[in-house]
Amino acid sequence: MSSSRTIGDFRIKGAGRLTPARTARFTFDGKSYTALEGDTVASALLANGVHLMGRSFKYHRPRGVLSAGAEEPNALIDVARDAARRQPNVRASVQEVFDGAIIRSQNRWPTLAFDTGAINNLLSPFFAAGFYYKTFMWPKEAWAKLYEPIIRRAAGLGVAPTEADPDHYANRFAHCDVLVAGAGIAGLTAALSAAETGVEVILVDERAEVGGALLFDGTTTINGQPGFEWAQDAAARLEAMPNVTVLTRTTVFGYYNHNFIGLVERVTDHLPNPGRHLPRERLWQVRAKKVVLATGAIERHMVFANNDRPGIMLASAARTYLNHYGVSVGAKVGVYTAHDSAYEAAIDLKRAGVDIAAIVDCRSEPGEAVVTAARSLGIEVLTGHSVVDTSGRLRISSMTVARNGSKTNRKIAVDALLMSGGWTPSVHLFSQSRGKLKFDKASDRFLPDLHVQDCVSIGACNGTDDLSALLAEASAAGGGPVSVSGTSTFAWTGGMIGAAEGAGKDKTVKAFVDFQHDVTAKDIRLAVREGMHSIEHIKRFTTNGMASDQGKLSNMHGLAIAAEMLGREIPQVGLTTFRAPYTPVTYGTLVAHSRGDLFDPARKTPLHGELAKAGAAFEDVGNWKRAWYFPQRGEDMAAAVNRECRTVRATAGVFDASTLGKIEVVGPDAAIFLNLLYTNAWDTLKPGKCRYGIMTREDGFIYDDGVVGRLAEDRFHVTTTTGGAPRVMAHMEDYLQTEFPDLKVWLTSTTEQWAVIAVQGPKARDIIAPLVDGLDLSNEAFPHMSVAECTMMGVPARLFRMSFTGELGFEVNVPADYGAAVWKAISERAEGMGACLYGTETMHVLRAEKGYIIVGQDTDGTVTPDDAGLSWAVSKKKTDFVGIRGLKRPDLMRDNRKQLVGLLTRDPIEVLEEGGQIVADPDQPKPMTMLGHVTSAYWSENLGRSIAIGLVAGGRARMGETLYVPMKDKVVEVEVTDMVFFDKDGGRIHG
After folding, report:
1. What is the mean pLDDT of residues 456-461?
2. Which has the closest alpha carbon to 330: 683, 9, 810, 113?
3. Does an H or E element contain 176, and which?
């Protein structure tokens, strides 16, 4: 090589776009190297003459970098800052070098150059595709003791970190009118076009710099500028526009329903000393009105014997390392191609002073212009020839060339070999969007066809090869005025998929299709011979396309080889499914803040601090911390609950009910909507009144319940169970959007908007009356099941007259910020009048004494309103509601269904176990006939005995019967009763 070099033996002076004055030091397997700022690990190692970067998964064959992008299957490395900040399986072609980076190779022992695992290459005849389906079957005892431990030790490539990750990760939600995926020529043009219309635009590209193919293509000009310069100017122009967000180092990894896009932004992976305030990575969750896919195309390798040696790489990769990073991939370079684009790599290298040994083209008639240009530089061009083998141990040293169909070989010395089988449109994101592809026979490519979502594919990913057509297509996709024109030196032709001449039809040649999983052409053929005729079956038999690169390079070759073996057209064999993520995403990014204390965050009500001051013992109810009971000095839980139960019935009690779900249902059709969602009627409910409502699923079983207050003709305050709040909200929203979209209704979750203070008991009115402004609380003016908007202590409030204890009761709703102050005032008045604070355990006992059910405890997903004794809450006049047809099924109308009933033990001291099974004959031989089970069981201090509720087959017809509950050490007799144990006539609630 004639040109002088700096910063590495293979760095070419004057080439590339990096600044020589800015350097970074890093180590690779303990040896120190110097890189330029902006280098990837791959370009920095190549600059220092290092091609051996990894070992393959199965055979442990030496491997070097194959690509210069996200499709890299070979050069997977471990990147660390220190012992804790370490990540395995990073692509060396993507990871930027930072000063102090500690880089290690993977999947080798003891060293990369001398790997004892390479014995597998000699034993490869025993490791043919699908061998794991036929071995390790015997002896049976050997699996757990021998096979499984060995397989687990051999599995995987990198080693997972064992220390806690000290970095933090961010999460961001965004909306935009247009999201453009890919910032090459097409993506930049589309973004400029869209931005000119004034809409919100997000432009995303996975590389550190925009430009796409312009990073390696130095011959294209746009608007009279060199292509890469134009790209940087276009990006700067976009970044200066207030309606545009440009995200580099950001990958679109997932395309989901309704144009929901997942992005991962690498924020600090390239920085030597990132600030503590900066996240390592950021997850973007974007909802876009329109998506423009400008994801480009991926160059294919050639499939021939021993095509995996270090030093063999894609032609576009070598061109990128030269033109962007200023690195030559070798001193004597060979080229093997079926496509014109590889000629440009040879031409660029030759002009940079690199010796090109020969261009070997398997086509008889390649593009005339590129052949002429290559030969004019003195490059030997061998058309109608193929590379049939290579040699070299840790790096390629020669290629063996033969005329197609000839037995005569010629060995040519090389230290690098570039290859190109053409370009495959990157349709991964389009496929993730559930779009349908079509196969273009003329170009042997799958292209976007039927769009399911509002997206458009442009440029190379759409099969648009001509530059002028690409620019017009991109401009039209943006929808705005933009003037862009361009020229390219050469028009590309050619391409092939499947095995080349040197792949061999025999069973010994290793012509690699999938580099990471060591899948060869012979493996694909073996799968077909074994009876695998679907590409999905072939994929799983061989593991082709199942590595971390998800078959970006291998899928089309494997498909073509299988089609040839089957004698079918490629579309008849099928196409594997492209799934998210497009490239691997770290767990840290997906988890973001949801770890440690935030992994399962506790939700606390606005009253939590006051409850804690009052000495509450808390229990976990889902994510909520709820006051369980309030023990006084010397009391255990039972004593505290008994005291609370007595006090509420005798005087009053104050309870934090803030966790109840609350949904605001607003709009002129609000009553119609609730009529459709609940079993009972709401159009007859007058403003200022409440009603208990039951919500069923389509199958007729109880889904949730709660009290609903009508505040105005067009406004309802809906309450749900604590655990049911999010699912009821989702349930309502689902039906509103999909079944009843014409209704003018708006739903808002207000669970955390309101602090709710329940005051229950004979003196409840006396406790709150002085605190309520301008509202008559008498029975006549404000009877049971009333609701009013008022002020309390000068604070806006919603006051409900309702009860879950069977006593005179009120529920005070005030804005959460004022909850603690109002609670303090109410609790001080209550305690001054001999009332008490009470918790969830007392609430459970008091409601059970009155026979009030709890959905999810007394129901199990198979209970209908009638089973629960709530048939009165199912309207007989309504012609439709969710669940009406389910309730009419014969099985749901049987008399002997399990029904909720009360249970009283013969021994009043005996408290049943919840979940205990109920039988008619405890002496019946096993298996015994189970009639049902106990759903709720408590000691009732007010009744001086135990009480229980249970689901019993034909329960209402068994009143007075004696049944049995087998316990662990005895059998308990119970009498079937109605569910109301206290105040059977219900007079106390109207006190």
Report:
1. 97
2. 9
3. strand 170-181
Q: What are the pLDDT digits (tens) for 899-920?
A: 999 999 999 999 999 999 999 9
Rounded-to-integer distance, Cα 635 and Cα 543, Å: 65
908 preceded by a cis bond (ω within 30 of 0): no
- Please tell me the pTM assigned to this model: 0.84
Tell me how far apart the alpha carbons of residues 565 and 526 are, in angstroms, rounded to a whole number.
Answer: 10
Cα 102 from Cα 886, distance rounded (Å): 64
Beta-carbon contacts of residue 833 (< 8 Å; ≥ 6 apart)? 651, 652, 763, 766, 767
Tell me which amino acid residue 373 is. Answer: A
Q: Over 90: is that where the pLDDT of 402 sits?
A: yes
The reported pLDDT for the residue numbered 596 is 87
Residues in the chain: 991
Spatial separation of the C-alpha atoms in residues 68 and 327, rounded to whole Å? 12
Q: Determine the average pLDDT of the residues in 383-396.
A: 96
Please spell the DSSP secondary structure of 433-445, one letter per residue: TTPEEEEETTTTE
* Closest of 357, 348, 301 to residue 322, by C-alpha: 348
Confidence of residue 135 (pLDDT cuts 50, 70, 90): confident
The 3-state DSSP class for residue 675 equals helix
Of 303, 312, 309, 337, the residue nearest 525 (C-alpha): 303
Q: What is the DSSP string of 189-237?
A: HHHHHHHTTT--EEEE-SSSSS-GGGGT--S-EETTEEHHHHHHHHHHH
Radius of gyration of the chain (CA): 37
Angle at CA of residue 298, ends 523 and 363, nearest 5°: 70
pLDDT (0 to 100) of residue 575: 86
Distance of CA 711 to the CA centre of its chain: 40
The whole-angstrom separation of Cα 404 and Cα 823 is 90
First to last CA, the chain: 102
- Mapping DSSP onto H, E and C, the string for 125-174 reads HHCCCCHHHCCCCCCCCHHHHHHHHHHHHHCCCCCCCCCCCCCCCEEEEE
CB atoms within 10 A of CB 224: 9
The Cβ-side half-sphere exposure at 687, using a 13 Å CA radius, reads: 7
* Cis peptide upstream of residue 927 (ω within 30 degrees of 0): yes
d(CA 201, CA 180) in angstroms, rounded, equals 8
What is the per-residue pLDDT for 506?
65
Q: Calculate helix-pair angle for 185-195, 227-239, nearest 10 degrees.
A: 30
Phi then psi dihedrals of residue 571, to 5 deg: -60, -25
Tokens at 775, concatenated: 């509202």
The C-alpha angle with vertex 41 and arms to 279 and 103, in degrees rounded to 5, equals 75
CA 205, CA 280: separation in Å to the nearest integer?
18
Contact between 194 and 479 (Cβ < 8 Å): yes
Q: 126 φ, ψ to 5°?
A: -90, -10
Query: Which amino acid, 813?
Result: N
Residue type, 802: M
Which residue in 855, 854, 851, 850 sits closest to 807, CA to CA? 850
Contacts for 937-940: CB closer than 8 Å, 24+ residues apart: 937/903, 937/911, 937/912, 937/913, 938/844, 938/845, 938/848, 938/911, 939/638, 939/642, 939/845, 939/911, 940/645, 940/845, 940/848, 940/849, 940/981, 940/982
Note whether 939 and 981 are within 8 A (CB): no
Check whether 976 has a pLDDT greater than 80: yes
- Measuring CA to CA, how many Å separate 184 from each of 19, 230, 370, 428? 23, 11, 24, 17
Please tell me whether residue 944 adopts helix, strand or coil conformation. coil
CA dihedral 882, 883, 884, 886 (to 10 degrees): 150
Strand partners, 5: 12
> Maximum Cα–Cα distance for the chain, whole Å?
110
Find, among 455, 389, 392, 466, the residue nearest to 428 by Cα: 455
